[in-house]
Amino acid sequence: MAQTLVVIGHGMVGHRLLEALAERDALAGPAARPGAGWQVTVLAEEHRPAYDRVHLSAAFTGATATDLALGDPDFFERHGIDLRLGDPALSIDTEARTVTSAAGSVLTYDALVLATGSYPFVPPIDGADAEGCFTYRTLDDVEALTAYAGADRVRSGVVIGGGLLGLEAAGALRTLGLATHVVEFAPRLMPLQVDDGGSAALRATIESMGVAVHTGVGAAGVQVRTDGRAQALRLTSGEEIGADVVVFSAGVRPRDRLARECGLAVGDRGGVVVDAHCRTSDPYVYALGECAQTADGKVYGLVAPGYQMAEAVADALAGPGEAVFTGADTSTKLKLMGADVASFGDPFAPEGRDGAVSVVFSDAREGVYKKLLLGPDGALLGGILVGDAQAYGSLKPHAGRQLPAPPEAFILPVSEGTPPPGADALPDDAVVCSCHNVTKGHVRAAVAAESLTDVGGIKKCTKAGSGCGGCVGTLQAVLDAELAAAGIEKPRGLCEHFTLTRAEIYGKVHAERIRSFSELLEAYGEGGEGCAVCKPVVANVLGTLAPDLGLGHILDGEQASLQDSNDLFLANLQKDGSYSVVPRVAGGEITAEQVIALGEIARDYGLYTKITGAQRIGLFGVRREQLPDIWRRLGGAGFESGQAYGKSLRAVKSCVGARFCRFGQGDSIQLAIDLELRYRGLRTPHKFKGGVSGCLRECAEARGKDIGVIATANGWNLYVSGNGGATPRHADLLASDLTTAELFALVDRFLMYYIRTGERLERTAAWIERLEGGIGHLREVLIEDSLGICGELEAQMERHVAAYQDEWQAVLEDPAALERFAAVDLSATGLPTVDFGGTALAAAAAGTGTDTAIGMGAGSAPATGTGTGTGTGVGPDGDTGTVTPGPVLEPGRGRTAVLPDGTQAALFKDRAGTVYAVGNRDPFSGADVIANGIMGTRDGVPVVTSPMHKQVFDLRTGICLDDPEVSLPLVDVP
Known about the structure:
The chain is of the alpha/beta class and about 950 residues long. The chain is built from 27 helices and 46 strands. The protein has a five-stranded parallel beta sheet with strand order 3-2-1-7-19, with no helix packed on it. Strands 9-16-10-11-12 form a five-stranded parallel beta sheet, covered by helices on one side.
């Protein structure tokens, strides 16, 4: 007979325990052997299943409960888990071994696990319970705070607490549009993670965003209006801060009430006392996560230690009982209000004590602070990284060990020091994933045993990288080192369909004037129908060479089926399935009338607006069907596509230059406008950006751009291949003191040479590092004309400039392209009204031949259509009806169908005419976007790749090929 396990609490750690038991086949689900495994009941206080609290702040920017949910919805049914939401435990009787819930249920148990977590500490000050005072701990807190902050009368807010959650909450208030203050009792921000130097860098960054920081002072009371609403926060210094909203984020306390009341041992400062197996003073009761005081006497508030406790409990319940938890690494790496912050080991030992010495790099201008603390023997004791945490993955596993290189190699900018050692320098017992306690040795063993070739495989086999995600870069480095050591080269080609690289494909298309994907696949393909890797690459190449090949718009004919979701709808797909629209604002110059027009559009459509880092204004939250109307209004105000969606020029940033600045030596505004208008619409291997500074003060940060121009007394200096993203790189000086004409000629050559030789998704910063000879090689080719191609490169650019067309306007003038954005009413056919997102199924086909509909659910039958596209389909009750000719389902391109019950289907047709219908909701993101994915094949199987995070689904079965436990439902389309 199955044993009974009751779990009280369903947060991240409680859910991880359930997963750990499932991985051990220890749950008595439908597929389990009769009488085997644990029969689990979960008592959850919240009314929603476990969700990702680590990324709770994402809820302020549109993430839903579905987006943050842990695991798939079928997990509980599949494993026979009785999840009782909104029914918390009220009491425990350890002698009778029963738990009583709020609903009055009395549950007996063979084992009980307390996973009750913690509650936010609210200081006992006057007014703490006033309207407008909130805690920041749950999705309910986020929803309540968001709703309250949306009132017109709410304009300012203060966060009490400057730790991790406090700064997250401050970022949330800022996102909500409130004037924001942070109050921290300690003398510095994040006192448990960073030292004075790190805190100073972090504070400077946060204050530069307009957030006021008050340290070394506490909250004395909330001043309340006569109507009961918060009005201000009174500080212990006597100062008052006007605040319509007060958020308490001053730490947490273990939720140990149930344990206290039933007689379990509890620590002096709270927390259920447990041993190394996470067993309490009662042998049948366990505790884990933030409610437990562990064997080392600590209460851990991070998710990684909680996950390790879950493994220990799962091993005790369903394993040999050898796993123990005696302490955990409390290293953290996160991004707070745009600033990278990381700490590891013990970075706080005073310098000089026991021979400890620190190595520090600080750049106050950039807000960067890096400190490594070394022991007398040179071993790395700990470190703090603020503003640039790129080295975290390399440093953290070496804590307590000798560094394999001088410490300067890890903290100095690459341009000033030697590159840090790679993954091969890590020892096998170094923990590379703290969330799941996975060592480098575990990863190496998995790579060898399972013949893994990508990080996705490592995640599935070891769970490394599936927690906070901070170790993914290290995992990739370990994987690359293992493959290289085994003599396994990464496949040269793009994918299984082409052994050619992107540069080779460009050469073939250019030389042989290949005008379509089908033609290229037939001539150089390896079979199949392509995929989400090769199709966008070929689309990009065809877009670049369109003037030479006589091709039109990127959405003409077959080209539309090659485009990723962004290029297909000429807008940026967002996490909720909506789109952002970013019109071009060349050089950052915009008229008052255009600003007003943008405001009116945002108001009329209820859109979120944001000034981007590229000196443009983005409109967020646009539905697909709204795009053409918004483009039309933008065009009327003098805007065109900013192509923020494409692998193309994003923008050319500028300072005000000689027009206004007293230091300006050149008209940076006009040059930026001229550069942007010349290179707009140019498809490149990856996006590229430009910047023009009017003097050497570099206010436009041109040396962090792919193309950077700085004015001098004698002309223009041209810098190339810079990058300000996740891997910053200062651009290299290509030429000095250029005239404007010389500058444009050299940029023409640079971009066209990059287009010819760059690889898929390769930014110019990575490209120049890969080129043998680097900047020297570019000078030889582009200035000295060593290959004799400079004239050809310039002529090709002139053809691009002459052929430019605004892609938004081209769609508005083309009914066939515009049709993809419109809804079609099929009610006249006798079938239920179905919105196919711009296409009628037309019996799943149009054109000649016989098309077959498969994978469409029980009770469906194939539907055929010939010639004109008229055919028969199966109605909701099995009746057939004639479907009249209409917009067709294009081979390789999905369409959305809104079904009679309000749910959505994603319809696809392959080149042979077979139609597939699956659910349109991406199970990983919760957004209805599957129809916007690229259809192709993997190992001969018809698949669709989600446009969100690129998971691949078998269209025949709906199963995710990257995570077989997740699937799309097969849909019966009437």
